[in-house]
C-alpha cells in the first residue's frame, strides 16, 4: 500500500517533487531543535495548492502520516517526522503573489521566507512587522503555523494579528480557502483562526494573505544596565508613557546571560566591561526624525535619577547592529552550552521577578542542572530559560518537572511563542486545564479523524 502510494506520488509530483535519497531524508528529519531519531519515508515537495491537495488525498487513502514543513527553524521539534511518515514541504511554493498598496495587504505562498515578505513590503513603503532572528530561513507558512512572536510583539502583536486570509489543505485533501480579504466579515466562525498556531496538526497552509502597516525606516536603539528586573520594569513603564506606540522593542538580558555570552564564550564583546547588571535593549521606531526626539533626554534623566546605572546610545546603524547582536547571540549558544533544555516560558509581567527567582531556586536544588541563562522579550513576560545538564534523560526530566512546577504555580505558559511541537506536548497540562485539552482534542478529531496530520505534535 505504501509503495503504491509513493509511486502515485512520484507520478503526480515528478522527480523534483519527491525526494528519497538517504542524505535528503536525514536533512529533512531535523529542525532547529535538533535531529530526529527517525527518517521520513519520502519528502514530498508539491508546487501548488492543487498538487498539495492531490498528494494529501493519496497519503490519506494509504493511511500515511504527513508532517508539514517550512524552513525547519522551529524550536519545538514540531517539523521532525516520526517513523513511517512522509514530509510535505512547502519550499517549492514560494514568492509574493500580490501586494495591494491601497488595502495594505500582501498575498504570498507559504514557502516564502519571512525576510522576503518584509523586503517586498518595504519596497512599497509598507512593512510586515513580525520579526524573528530566523527571518532569512523561516517560511511565512511556518510562522503562521506557529503563530510566531519575536522582537516586535510589544508594538505589533503576534502573527495572528496580521493574518487576514488563509488557504489550507485539510487532512483528506479538501481545499479550504478564506482569501477574500474583506476588512469586515462576520459570517459565522472565523475558520482561519484554528490553523494559526496549530503547528501542522490540522492541515497544510499553502497561501496566506497578510495585513501590512506603514514602514518606519528610522530607529533609535540603546542598551541600558540596571540593577535588577524591577528597575527594568520601571524603565519600561516610563518608556511606554513617554513614547507610546513608538516603543517597538524592550528586550531583557539577565546577568547570567550577559556573563555567558560576553565572558565565558565570547560570542559578543562586553558592552560594560568590569560591571555586570541586568541589561535592557530598548528600540524606538518612527517615520521621521521628529518621532525619535527625546530619546537621548530620556536616557539622561534615567541616568541622573540612578534608575539606570550605565547606558550606551547607538549613534549609527553599525552601533545598532552591534547592540542587537548581543540579544541575537542566543542563537549561537547551543554548541558551547552542550546538552541543555531551552524553555520558552511566559508569566504575567507582575510575577516575572518572583517567577525567575523561583526557577533559579528550584534548579539550584537539582545536582543535575548546570549553567542557567535567561534572556527574553521582557515586555511580553517571555523568558527563554536555558539550563545545561549532563545529557541524560533523567536530568532532562527532573529539570523539566522542576521548571514546569513553577510555571504551574505562577499560572504561566509552557510555551510563549515557539509552540508545543513534540518537545512540550507532555507538559501541556501544566498550563491547560482538562476542559481546554478536551476541546483541543475535539477540534483535532473533527478536522483529522484518522490522526494523520503531524501525529505526535501538540496533542496526543
Ligand atoms: C535563531 C532563531 C530565532 C528564533 N526566534 C524566534 C522568535 O523570536 N520568536 C518565535 O516565535 N520563534 C522564533 N524562532 C522559532 C522559529 O523560527 C519559528 O517557530 C518559525 O515560525 C518557524 O518557521 P519555519 O518555516 O522554519 O517552520 P518549521 O520549523 O518548518 O515548522 C514549524 C511548525 O510549523 C508546522 N508548519 C510549517 N509550515 C507549515 C505549513 N505551511 N502548514 C502547516 N504547518 C506548517 C510544522 O509542522 C511545525 O510543527 C527562532 C528560531 C531560530 C532558529
TrEMBL record:
<dbReference type="InterPro" id="IPR016169">
    <property type="entry name" value="FAD-bd_PCMH_sub2"/>
</dbReference>
<protein>
    <submittedName>
        <fullName>Putative FAD-linked oxidoreductase</fullName>
        <ecNumber>1.-.-.-</ecNumber>
    </submittedName>
</protein>
<dbReference type="InterPro" id="IPR004113">
    <property type="entry name" value="FAD-bd_oxidored_4_C"/>
</dbReference>
<dbReference type="Pfam" id="PF01565">
    <property type="entry name" value="FAD_binding_4"/>
</dbReference>
<dbReference type="InterPro" id="IPR016171">
    <property type="entry name" value="Vanillyl_alc_oxidase_C-sub2"/>
</dbReference>
<dbReference type="InterPro" id="IPR051264">
    <property type="entry name" value="FAD-oxidored/transferase_4"/>
</dbReference>
<dbReference type="GO" id="GO:0022904">
    <property type="term" value="P:respiratory electron transport chain"/>
</dbReference>
<keyword id="KW-0560">Oxidoreductase</keyword>
<dbReference type="GO" id="GO:0016491">
    <property type="term" value="F:oxidoreductase activity"/>
</dbReference>
<dbReference type="GO" id="GO:0071949">
    <property type="term" value="F:FAD binding"/>
</dbReference>
<dbReference type="InterPro" id="IPR016167">
    <property type="entry name" value="FAD-bd_PCMH_sub1"/>
</dbReference>
<keyword id="KW-0274">FAD</keyword>
<dbReference type="InterPro" id="IPR036318">
    <property type="entry name" value="FAD-bd_PCMH-like_sf"/>
</dbReference>
<dbReference type="InterPro" id="IPR016166">
    <property type="entry name" value="FAD-bd_PCMH"/>
</dbReference>
<dbReference type="InterPro" id="IPR006094">
    <property type="entry name" value="Oxid_FAD_bind_N"/>
</dbReference>
<keyword id="KW-0285">Flavoprotein</keyword>
<dbReference type="InterPro" id="IPR016164">
    <property type="entry name" value="FAD-linked_Oxase-like_C"/>
</dbReference>
<feature type="domain" description="FAD-binding PCMH-type">
    <location>
        <begin position="36"/>
        <end position="215"/>
    </location>
</feature>
<dbReference type="Pfam" id="PF02913">
    <property type="entry name" value="FAD-oxidase_C"/>
</dbReference>
<comment type="similarity">
    <text>Belongs to the FAD-binding oxidoreductase/transferase type 4 family.</text>
</comment>
Amino acid at each position: 500500500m505504501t509503495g503504491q502510494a509513493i509511486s502515485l506520488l512520484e507520478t503526480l509530483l515528478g522527480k523534483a517533487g519527491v525526494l528519497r535519497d538517504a542524505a535528503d531524508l536525514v536533512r529533512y528529519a531535523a529542525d532547529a531543535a535538533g535531529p530526529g531519531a527517525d527518517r521520513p519515508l519520502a519528502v514530498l515537495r508539491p508546487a501548488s495548492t492543487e498538487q498539495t491537495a492531490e498528494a494529501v488525498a493519496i497519503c490519506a487513502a494509504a493511511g500515511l502520516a504527513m508532517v508539514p514543513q517550512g524552513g525547519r527553524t522551529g524550536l519545538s521539534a514540531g517539523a521532525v517526522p516520526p517513523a513511517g511518515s512522509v514530509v510535505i514541504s512547502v519550499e517549492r511554493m514560494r514568492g509574493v503573489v500580490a501586494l495591494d498598496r491601497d488595502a495594505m495587504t500582501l498575498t504570498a505562498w507559504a514557502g516564502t521566507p519571512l525576510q522576503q515578505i518584509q523586503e517586498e513590503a518595504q519596497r512599497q513603503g509598507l512593512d510586515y512587522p513580525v520579526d524573528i532572528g530566523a527571518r532569512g530561513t523561516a517560511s511565512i507558512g511556518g510562522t503562521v503555523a506557529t503563530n510566531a512572536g519575536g522582537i516586535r510583539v510589544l508594538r505589533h502583536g503576534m502573527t495572528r494579528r496580521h493574518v487576514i486570509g488563509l488557504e489550507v489543505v485539510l487532512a483528506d485533501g479538501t481545499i479550504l480557502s478564506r482569501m477574500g480579504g474583506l476588512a469586515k466579515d462576520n459570517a459565522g466562525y472565523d475558520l482561519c483562526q484554528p490553523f494559526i498556531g496549530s503547528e501542522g496538526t490540522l492541515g497544510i497552509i499553502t497561501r496566506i494573505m497578510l495585513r501590512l502597516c506603514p514602514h518606519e525606516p528610522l530607529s533609535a536603539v540603546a542598551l541600558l544596565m540596571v540593577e535588577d528586573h524591577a528597575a527594568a520594569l520601571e524603565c519600561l513603564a516610563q518608556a511606554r508613557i513617554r513614547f507610546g506606540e513608538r516603543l517597538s522593542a524592550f528586550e531583557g538580558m539577565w546577568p547570567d546571560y550577559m556573563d555567558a555570552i560576553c565572558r565565558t564564550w565570547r560570542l559578543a564583546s562586553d558592552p560594560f566591561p568590569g560591571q555586570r547588571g541586568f541589561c535592557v535593549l530598548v528600540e524606538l521606531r518612527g517615520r521621521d526624525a521628529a518621532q525619535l526626539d527625546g530619546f537621548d533626554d530620556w536616557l539622561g534623566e534615567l541616568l541622573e535619577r540612578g534608575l539606570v546605572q550605565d547606558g550606551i546610545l547607538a549613534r549609527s546603524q553599525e552601533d545598532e547592529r552591534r547592540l542587537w547582536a548581543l540579544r541575537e547571540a542566543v542563537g549561537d549558544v547551543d554548541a558551547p552550552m552542550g546538552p541543555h533544555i531551552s524553555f520558552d516560558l511566559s508569566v504575567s509581567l507582575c510575577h516575572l521577578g518572583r517567577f525567575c527567582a523561583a526557577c533559579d531556586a528550584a534548579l539550584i536544588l537539582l545536582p543535575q542542572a548546570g549553567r542557567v541563562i535567561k534572556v527574553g522579550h521582557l515586555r511580553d513576560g517571555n523568558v527563554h530559560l536555558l539550563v545545561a545538564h549532563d545529557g541524560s534523560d533523567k536530568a532532562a526530566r527532573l529539570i523539566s518537572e522542576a521548571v514546569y512546577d513553577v510555571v504551574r504555580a505562577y499560572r504561566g505558559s509552557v510555551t510563549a511563542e515557539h509552540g508545543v511541537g513534540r518537545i512540550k506536548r507532555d507538559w501541556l497540562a501544566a498550563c491547560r486545564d482538562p476542559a481546554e485539552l478536551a476541546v483541543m482534542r475535539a477540534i483535532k478529531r473533527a478536522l483529522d479523524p484518522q490522526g494523520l496530520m503531524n501525529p505526535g505534535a501538540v496533542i496526543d
